[in-house]
Amino acid sequence: MTVVLDHTAGRPRHPEKAHRPDQAVARKPDWIRVRAPVSQGYAATAEIVRANGLHTVCEEAGCPNIGECWEQKHATFMILGDTCTRACAFCNVKTGMPGPLDAREPRNVAEATAKLGLAHVVVTSVDRDDLADGGAGHFAETIRAIRQACPSTTIEVLTPDFLRKDGALERVIEARPDVFNHNLETVPSKYLGVRPGARYFHSVRLLQRVKEVDPKMFTKSGIMVGLGEERNEVLQVMDDLRAAGVDFLTIGQYLQPTRKHHPVMRFLPPDEFDQLKTLAYAKGFLMVSSSPLTRSSHHAGEDFARLKAARGA
To answer: What backbone torsions phi and psi does residue 6 show, to the nearest 5 degrees?
Structure first.
């Protein structure tokens, strides 16, 4: 298959990629292998997600860890609908013109969080450049709904960049999530080809601004490797994030969703991820997760506990 279809409508999932030349999908090395999701816990999580009419980035982005996470009833909710207004070359989330916001979505996320018994919940979203606030108000409503339904649950948000949306970031911060995550995704030299709708230094500045508004809020960011970046560029990203006061860094292997997406230029072996982790800790991050299968929300709850302990120490 050269382009994934939106099976509900029979249209290309990524219409902007439909006419791109096919890129060969490289065979994954042994250390990338994961088991197919077949457990009872996986089925139970899927049922709760469906019953509440929700979307998850686990499914929409084709996360390789979905079987492991859903078996433990750990799902990452994706709000603001299932259609993104941008067309990043690495991402498998459906693209196009989104529909109107679902006013029930914040409440549904809160109810699903309660049903899953989540001690720590991660909420992310598609990009919504069509909205005046980029969806920031919807994020804030979702945080408040979870707080009301699950007072003891800690909340992590993984937001878009809210590019050219004045005051949007501050609306999310005012709702007081426990962790504010915004991924840089890749090094600056790759933005035009990999993340063309975003601006690297705007994303760095967004993370810095979170600390300016609330110095106690934990901040987090992540990048993918294997897109053709140089090692010294990855180290420079680390320095930029530390200059912005970011607490937690994730580094994972990029995996190509379809033949129409950016090809994997290299699979980094596990020992190189270990080296990057050592260097990141040396640069001052409180928490670092670096491995081929690392993703932003993978083991997020356990990592948050370690993050709080590291700050305390």
So the answer is: -85, 100
